[in-house]
Amino acid sequence: MLHLSYDSGTTEVLRDPAVCLCSFCCTPYQNALTHARLENRSMTVCDCVTSICPLPPVAPFPCCMAYQNRQQLRAKYGFPSEPFADALKALLFPCCVVAQDGRETKLRESVVARKRYDRADPMAQEMDNVVMQ
Questions:
Q1: Which one, of 104, 103, 94, 83, lies nearest residue 5 by Cα?
Q2: Contact by Cβ (8 Å): 21, 40
Q3: What pLDDT digit, counting tens, does each position of 17-72 carry?
Q4: Cis bond leading into 28, ω under 30°?
Q5: Neighbouring C-beta atoms of residue 53, cutoff 10 Å
Q6: Contacting residues for 29 by C-beta, under 8 A, at least 6 apart
Q7: What is the 3 state secondary structure string of the chain?
């Protein structure tokens, strides 16, 4: 079920140590991964290079990439637009924005993958139900 707001709050990022550590220790990598997920594709070396050395229109600050990802995420999932608030958050707390967006895309990607799995293999779904009982 997709909501019109973030499923992962800022503090919920701490429940996902991989995203949390990656966002705080290697922000450009997590930015690149989130950007690729938003475009429904695998991350490439170009994504990483662009995150480390941003090109126009996101140059010269990496926080601009976080803002761009946030705007893309809002558009993709139909979240209400908050450009001013997002700009302030990306400028003041870029690692937190990157972590929250990374977790959000990861959660939503897993929901979509689960729905595809359920539709593709009804027998596997029945087996999952038997195992859970």
A1: 104
A2: no
A3: 888 888 888 888 888 899 999 999 998 888 877 777 655 555 456 688 889 999 99
A4: no
A5: 11
A6: 22, 48, 51
A7: CCCCCCCCCCHHHHHCHHHHHHHHHCHHHHHHHHHHHHCCCCCCHHHHHHHHCCCCCCCCCHHHHHHHHHHHHHHHHCCCCCHHHHHHHHHHCHHHHHHHHHHHHHHHHHHHHHHHHHHHCHHHHHHHHHHHC
All residues at 6 or more sequence positions from 36 whose CB lies less than 8 Å from its CB, including other chains: 42, 43, 44, 47
What's the rounded Cα separation, in Å, for the pair 64 and 27? Answer: 12
At residue 74 the predicted structure's pLDDT band, cuts being 50, 70 and 90, is very high
Residue with tokens 């908050």: 82
- Six-digit token pair at 48? 């990483």
